[in-house]
């Protein structure tokens, strides 16, 4: 590696390579492309701009991998977190094509949990015991039904079932596989309850109001997904129109509570496990959001920063399995996870072989314990999109290259993929560049905070 670094540093094109790596933010796994682009004046044929990788180091151009996970690429995950922060925040206070009047709409931060699949060890506070019981009872498998230990954060027992044989692993996996449908029915039920409470036909709800949301899926320490969602009530045209007079925080909260109790999804019948009725867990929370802080201290910026921080976490950091798909059951035995998570993976693999669960593709999603959804999803009218944010950033960076608007330009481009990643020596240098950029961002953040005293957030 030392020899490679010396050779790389002595290359005449090393400064240009450093420029490329810096432009990617020190991306850990950059995409390599080669090709050219030429822009001409359609009327005269004059070449207005031409770029080719022929003179670049290795005749290739480096692009960001755009992976959201910090464990895979810290640089790109930081950028993704910033985009997420602005996406969520825009839906709360406006900006990025969203009008500022949304801050006056009813907005709630809702937490929905998965049901219990069996008792597990959990973190205890103030010296309290995990699951104290007066009687020393045991389950049918001979294991204690209680736990008198005090579990500090980081205890490997946290999230593990008291009895793995009693734990309902098939229900856990199938709840994950149907989590998207559970949420979809929940959203429909909220709309129907709002309409019924307001005294309007359910089919007429879109003519009176619109329910917008952005939600993030988070894995609990037991390996079960729970959902944090920003829910907003708009007028029928979306964020540009205020909700009707009957649309209040109290009414929205009541509709959410009712929907949580009513929603149920039935799994296909299986001779192995029967038919399961999947519901939300009994623990949930719904709190109103405030721009500058309220009685509960929950602000728009705090929620946006929390969501942005979570979406960058990898599977290994969140008790959710692996960051890559499993193609062979032998990989499950070698996976660096707890026995509980490994059993969930095996359950996915076993249920995935049953014809009644073929459509769920459980084997393809065994690495996420059967959960098939995105970490962050939103309704169409909630706010802007990742694509729009990236396009705006690209326009800003390419502003010096913008052509005159009065020119009718035609662009001819040809690009091809040539590889990805870094060699070991190049990866070490790239990691140093990424660290320098991160230190620079932190210094800038501290400077801004000391100047205006404001929170800088996950920008």
Could you walk me through the main structural features you see in this protein, from its secondary elements to its overall organization?
The protein is α+β, with helices and mostly antiparallel strands and 459 residues long. Helices cover 33% and strands 15% of the residues. The strands form three sheets. Strands 9-4-6-5-10 form a five-stranded antiparallel β-sheet, sandwiched between helices. Strands 1, 2, 3 and 11 form a four-stranded antiparallel β-sheet that branches. The protein has a two-stranded antiparallel ribbon with strand order 7-8. A hairpin with a 5-residue loop joins strand 1 and strand 2 (47-52). Helix 3 runs antiparallel to helix 7, helix 4 packs across helix 9 (339-351) and helix 5 packs across helix 6 (249-262).
SS elements, strand count: 11
Major β-sheet, in short? 5 strands, antiparallel
Distance N terminus to C terminus? Answer: 35 Å
Which blocks of ≥5 consecutive residues have pLDDT under 50? 454-459
Classification by helices and strands: alpha+beta
Beta-strand percentage range: 15-25%
- Strand line-up across the major sheet: 9-4-6-5-10
Tell the overall outline. globular
* Radius of gyration over all CA atoms, rounded: 26 Å
The residue fraction in helices comes out at: 25-40%
Number of helices: 11
Query: Element order, helices and strands?
Result: HHEEEHEHHEEHEEEHHHEHEH
**Overall average residue pLDDT:** 89
Please render the helix and strand layout as text.
Elements: H1 2-10, H2 14-23, E1 31-41, E2 47-52, E3 61-63, H3 74-93, E4 107-112, H4 169-177, H5 179-198, E5 210-219, E6 225-234, H6 249-262, E7 265-266, E8 277-278, E9 284-288, H7 300-310, H8 330-334, H9 339-351, E10 376-378, H10 386-397, E11 409-420, H11 424-452
Antiparallel strand pairs: 1-2, 1-3, 1-11, 4-6, 4-9, 5-6, 5-10, 7-8
Helix pairs in contact: 1-11, 3-7, 4-9, 5-6
């Amino acid at each position: 590696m030392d020899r490679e670094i010396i050779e790389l540093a002595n290359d005449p094109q090393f400064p240009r390579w450093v420029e490329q790596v810096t432009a990617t933010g020190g991306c850990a796994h950059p995409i390599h492309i080669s090709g050219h682009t030429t822009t001409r004046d359609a009327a005269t044929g004059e070449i207005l701009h031409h770029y080719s990788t022929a003179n670049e180091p290795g005749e290739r151009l480096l692009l960001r991998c755009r992976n959201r996970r910090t464990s895979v690429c810290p640089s790109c995950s930081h950028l993704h977190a910033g985009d997420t922060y602005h996406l969520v925040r825009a839906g709360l206070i406006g900006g990025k094509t969203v009008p500022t009047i949304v801050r006056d709409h009813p907005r709630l931060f809702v937490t929905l949990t998965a049901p219990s699949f069996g008792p597990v060890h959990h973190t205890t506070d103030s010296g309290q015991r995990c699951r104290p019981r007066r009687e020393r009872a045991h389950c049918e498998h001979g294991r204690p039904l209680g736990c008198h230990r005090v579990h500090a954060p980081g205890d490997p027992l946290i999230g593990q079932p008291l009895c793995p044989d009693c734990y309902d692993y098939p229900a856990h996996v199938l709840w994950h596989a149907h989590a998207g449908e559970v949420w979809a029915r929940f959203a429909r039920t909220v709309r129907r309850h709002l309409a019924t409470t307001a005294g309007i036909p359910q089919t007429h709800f879109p003519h009176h109001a619109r329910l917008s949301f952005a939600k993030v899926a988070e894995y609990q320490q037991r390996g079960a997904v729970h959902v944090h969602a920003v829910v907003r009530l708009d007028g029928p045209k979306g964020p540009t129109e205020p909700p009707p007079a009957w649309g209040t925080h109290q009414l929205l909260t009541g509709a959410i509570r009712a929907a949580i109790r009513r929603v149920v999804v039935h799994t296909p019948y299986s001779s192995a496990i029967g038919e399961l009725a999947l519901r939300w867990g009994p623990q949930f929370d719904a709190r109103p959001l405030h721009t500058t802080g309220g009685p509960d201290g929950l602000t728009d910026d705090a929620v946006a920063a929390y969501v942005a921080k979570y979406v960058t976490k990898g599977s290994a950091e969140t008790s959710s399995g692996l960051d890559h798909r499993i193609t062979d059951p032998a990989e499950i035995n070698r996976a660096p996870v707890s026995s509980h998570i490994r059993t969930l993976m095996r359950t996915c693999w076993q249920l995935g072989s049953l014809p009644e669960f073929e459509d769920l593709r459980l084997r393809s999603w065994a690495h996420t314990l059967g959960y098939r959804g995105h970490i962050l999803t939103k309704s169409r009218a909630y706010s802007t999109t990742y694509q729009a944010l990236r396009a705006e950033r690209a326009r800003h960076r390419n502003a010096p290259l913008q052509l005159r608007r009065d020119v009718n330009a035609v662009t001819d481009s040809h690009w091809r993929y040539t590889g990805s990643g870094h060699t070991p020596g190049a990866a070490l240098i790239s990691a140093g560049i990424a660290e320098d950029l991160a230190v620079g961002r932190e210094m800038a953040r501290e400077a801004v905070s000391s100047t205006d005293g404001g929170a800088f957030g996950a920008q």
